[in-house]
Specification:
- The chain has about 120 residues and is mainly beta.
- The chain has a single domain, classed as Chondroitinase Ac, Chain A, domain 3, CATH 2.60.220.
- A six-stranded antiparallel beta sheet has the order 1-2-3-6-7-8, covered by helices on one side.
- The radius of gyration is 17 Å and the shape is globular.
């Protein structure tokens, strides 16, 4: 019998919302500041599972930066394992190797939180 006034805790975590490839590319392009009409980037790597895209890496048109989308989870593919505690978009400067998180996906609101 639950006690009155004590909130119950939902033991089930919120399921991670899987974004479509088109939505992922739209988010990457926005952060690359490229017009959506000019798809002048190169997809370098892409991994999917039964739910959809879990990893997508693109090279900027000037080939100076790499942008990566990674979905929350642990994924096997092409002889490597990719693990992520959250769904993120990152950029990497290929000249100096500097990498940073650009945005984290909030599954509760369905929105990206810029960093």
């Amino acid at each position: 019998m639950p006690h009155e006034g004590i909130p119950t805790i939902d033991a089930e975590p919120n399921p991670e919302r899987v974004l479509s490839r088109e939505k992922i590319l739209e988010e990457l392009l926005m952060r690359m500041m490229i017009s959506h009409e000019k798809f002048q980037f190169r997809v370098e790597r892409e991994m999917s599972d039964a739910e959809g895209v879990c990893f997508l890496e693109v090279l900027s048109p000037d080939k100076g930066k790499r942008y990566t989308y990674q979905r929350k989870g642990s994924f096997e593919g092409r002889g490597q394992k990719i693990e992520s505690s959250g769904t993120t978009i990152r950029s990497e400067d290929l000249d100096d190797g500097y990498s940073r998180t650009l945005a984290d996906y909030n599954p509760d609101t369905g929105e990206w939180v810029d960093q």
